[in-house]
Amino acid sequence: MSTRVLLPRTQPLTTWTISAVTRLNVSGAAMPAGVSDEQRVDTRALVSMSFERTATGALRGSGQVDSFTVRSSIADSPTPAPLTAAAPSRVSLLLIDAFIDTSSLRVVARPPLANECDRSEVSAMQLARELLVRVPDGVGEGAQWRDSTVTLVCRSGVPLTVYTITHSTLATVSRETLVVRREMTTRLEGKGGSAFRAFDLVGTGSGSQRLEIAARTGILETLQGSSTLTMQLTERIPPGTPRSQQVLQRVELRAERQR
Description:
By secondary structure, this protein is mainly beta. The protein is 4% helix and 62% strand. It is built from 1 helix and 11 strands, in the order βββββαββββββ.
């Protein structure tokens, strides 16, 4: 008989180091002079959170993001491309609240930000989101479950709606460790600009992650993942032949619990 998982209802304050390497390739409309069509952004943070867990695996918690840093080739460009504008490079300390269930995945600042568009705090919260893992009670090795979330974000001044479907599989169960594999598909859309320059933005992507979770405590020990997102920006105004720009974004993600 396969072992059924029943994780503790509370998770003590835990700290992780999490980092992401994002590579951006831009094609289409002519790039401004001095801007490379290949750009790289490295982000890193210390994230600390504690949680309460329900029988469905939903998590509600709070904590902080500390020492968030960005190293970006975009910041060295005199005129960044519309989809790749660099945010300020450092957040010293950010208090957060976090929640995940089958249809919602949220990390918000405490107190809330007045404007989340192109803020470095939002990039810090996006790293923290990756650490939220839902494992329902009673699942056994080979079990699968599905989450579907809708998130509102803002990128380069463009409000975006992001639809994400996550398929999770409990790949391995042992006395010490649970191995969860996540496969994600993403779709995004938005409109932005002004009366003189307006554009549409759409995108699709996919990704995969491997997570190791301590079987006794339910604490995430390690995370490794990668994802690809293709975004297409098309100008609607001024009228005439639409100009378009495509950005291919590839992300490598790593997280590890600090002891």
